[in-house]
Every structure is written in structure tokens, then in C-alpha cells.
Write a structure and sequence with these properties.
heterodimer, A: 86 residues, mainly alpha, Arc Repressor Mutant, subunit A, 4 helices, B: mainly alpha, Rna Polymerase Sigma Factor, Chain: A, 9 helices, 67% helix
């Protein structure tokens, strides 16, 4: 998003800059304006916390464990692949 | 717990148990990632199994310039992409959707209604468990490139440069995809809370 200098950010711009902020990809001046907005705006501060909570929640999505059958199958496959290779 | 590198060393000398330990560690993650590119679970399983053959046969050539995990994910993405292309899967068009519905802002671009806090609930283990399914569905429903980036970054915990290497995309592109994917997941969690809160 194109930011005009020396103008305050509005909330609708802030929500599009949240990821760049969390990724440390904002320039120094952009970051200052972003943080100045957050200090004055409880809604956008809340929004940022929701994004952080979303990232944490996504990090808890564990993949399925390997079933005993699949484990056995892979043991056999390994032996077959090895013998085909040699 | 053995490190990936220790298991790889044992795999090089033909240790089948080390191989199965690696499979147990990563197979579920690989299936989830592969599923982004192919039309069904069966094709994803095939692509992942193909990748494990690639690991067994290519382990001698793995030089450890990147981590094993990065190398493994790249193999899977490549195989799943070709499998997806063979299946001629129709890829949903990625539109540049705004992070938040524009109707939520007033004419000046400020929030029209206060942002309702729910993030403390998301960290509550009981509540988080009930949300896990809706979050998983939302993740599955993301366009493929957003889905792959969010899985690699936020589920698997890869660093951004490793994600770029696995997917062959630029840092800037990765950030855009991550932003769209995360914003979408946030809005799904918010909507879920609004339903439950009523």
C-alpha cells in the first residue's frame, strides 16, 4: 500500500500493514507511524493482538500421527526400495 | 530425541528404523502440505510416498546446505506440484481481498464499530480445542499458495528465507501471501466467536 508522507495512518491502512510490521519489513519511518497509530487506537491494538493470537492458534494444529499399519508399511517399503537400488 | 541429522546419518548406513522414525516425524506435515496442490488425499499420499523414495535414494546427495526439513519440504512441494498438474486440478483464483471487510470502516477509514476482544479466548486451551476444527477447515480452504506459506511458516515454524527456498518465491511475495492467509484465518476465528457469543 502506498503511504503518503506526513499523514496519519487510518485504521483501514493499518490492518493491511500488520503483517509487514510483524515481519519487520516496515521502514523506520513507516514503523514509527504504525506504532504512533497503535498508541492512539485501542481498536487497531486489539486487531494486532488478534493477529498474534491467530498465529499462535495456527501453530497448535498438530498433524495426524502415523498409524501402526502405516509404520509397518513404510518399514517394508524401505527394504524394497533399498533392494531395488542395490 | 534424535535430531534429524543423526537419523539421516543412520539412514545413510541403511538403518530402516531411523527411516521410519523420520517418516513418523514428518509424514503428517507432508500430507497436509501436499494436499494443497492435489485434488484428493489419495494423490497426496502417493506424492508423499514418492518423496520418501526420493529421500532414500537421494540421501547420499544431500549435502546439508539447507536443513533436512527444508530439503524434504522442497521435494514434496515439487512432487505434489507435478502430480497436481497431471490431475489438471482447477486452482481457485486468488483475489487480492482486503484483510478486513471494507464495510467495517467509516468513510475516513476508521473502525466504524469497536473491535471486540476475543484473543484471550483463543489462548484458552478448552476454547482453542473447539476452534481447532474451524481453523483447520479455514486453512484447507485457503488458495494453494497462501495455504502453503501459512503451513510452512505458522504450523511448521520455518523461517521466512527457508519458506522462500521451499516454494521458490521472493520474500516480498511470501509476505503478501502470508498476510492474506493470516488475515483470512483471523476473520474466520472472529466469525466463529460471534456465532458462539450469541
Amino acid at each position: 500500500m502506498l503511504l503518503r508522507r506526513r499523514e496519519d495512518l487510518v485504521c483501514q491502512q493499518v490492518v493491511e500493514l500488520v503483517s509487514d510490521y510483524l515481519e519487520g519489513a516496515l521502514s523506520r519511518s513507516q514503523r514509527k507511524r504504525f506504532e504512533a497509530h497503535l498508541r492512539a487506537c485501542p481498536n487497531c491494538s486489539g486487531y494486532l493482538e488478534q493477529m498474534r493470537a491467530t498465529i499462535r492458534a495456527t501453530g497448535t494444529l498438530q498433524p495426524q500421527d502415523l498409524s501402526p499399519e502405516a509404520r509397518e508399511e513404510f518399514t517394508e517399503l524401505f527394504l524394497r526400495w533399498r533392494s531395488e537400488e542395490n | 530425541m534424535d535430531t534429524d541429522e543423526e537419523l539421516l546419518e543412520r539412514l545413510r548406513s541403511g538403518d530402516g528404523e531411523a527411516f521410519v522414525t523420520l517418516v513418523a516425524r514428518y509424514n503428517g506435515s507432508l500430507l497436509r502440505l501436499a494436499r494443497s496442490y492435489v485434488p484428493n488425499d489419495a494423490v497426496a499420499e502417493e506424492a508423499v510416498q514418492d518423496s520418501w523414495v526420493g529421500v532414500v535414494r537421494g540421501v547420499e546427495r544431500f549435502e546439508g546446505r539447507s536443513s533436512f526439513k527444508t530439503w524434504l519440504f522442497r521435494i514434496v512441494v515439487n512432487r505434489a506440484r507435478s502430480a497436481g498438474a497431471r490431475e489438471q486440478r482447477t486452482v481457485p483464483i486468488e483475489r487480492a481481498e482486503p484483510a478486513v471487510d471494507p464495510a467495517r470502516f467509516d468513510a475516513g477509514g476508521a473502525w466504524a464499530q469497536p473491535v471486540v476482544a476475543w484473543e484471550a479466548d483463543a489462548d484458552d486451551r478448552m476454547v482453542a480445542a473447539t476452534w481447532a476444527r474451524c481453523l483447520r477447515d479455514a486453512l484447507d480452504g485457503l488458495p494453494e499458495r497462501q495455504r502453503a506459506v501459512v503451513i510452512l511458516r505458522d504450523v511448521e515454524g520455518l523461517a521466512s528465507n527457508d519458506v522462500c527456498e521451499v516454494l521458490g518465491i521472493s520474500e516480498g511475495n511470501q509476505r503478501v501471501l502470508l498476510h492474506r492467509g493470516r488475515s483470512r484465518l483471523r476473520s474466520v476465528l472472529e466469525a466463529e466467536l460471534a456465532v458462539r457469543g450469541r
